[in-house]
Amino acid sequence: MWYYIISVLIVIIFYILMYIWITELEKQGCNCSELWHRDIIKYSSIILLVNVILLFSNVMQKILQHKKLNNLESIWLFGSSFITITFFSILLDYIIKLKSLENCICSEDWKRELGFYYSILYFAMLGINILVLFILAIFLVYFNMKK
Question: What is the tally of structural domains in the chain?
């Protein structure tokens, strides 16, 4: 249970930091950071922050208690996963583009680096999860064929 609470707190802090970083870029008048990604990251950070809190308080409690999710909760969980993957794709693309701009010194911040490495870690963990599920599916098919 503590693992989930700590994980959710880390995610909450991450979304808050990404929102703060984007608003700081706007306040500084960092013109080179005015890519289409910026507003999407700003507003989706808030949306995903609220979503994580609601998701953890409702759906994750059922999962931890080994209760079955209803259809709406399952759709919510799937939709949240899709939106989160999209968010991290946009965030990673934005940071890579900012890093490639030689004159965009105003976007340099430890929060940008955090977003970069956290996004890479997110996709690495996602890839590992997909790989494990794929291997489990192969084993299930293999053992069901032996019966």
Answer: 1
**Which of helix, strand or coil describes residue 36?**
coil
| Most distant CA pair in the chain, distance | 66
CA distance 117 to 2: 24
Domain hosting residue 65, numbered range: 2-146
Phi, psi (5° rounding) for residue 32? -70, -15
Question: pLDDT of 112-138, one tens digit each?
Answer: 999 999 999 999 999 999 999 999 999
The 10s digit of each residue's pLDDT in 73-101 is 888 889 999 999 999 999 999 999 999 99
| Cβ density class 2-18: b for 16+ within 10 Å, e for less | eeeeeebeebeebbebb
Alpha-carbon radius of gyration of the chain: 19
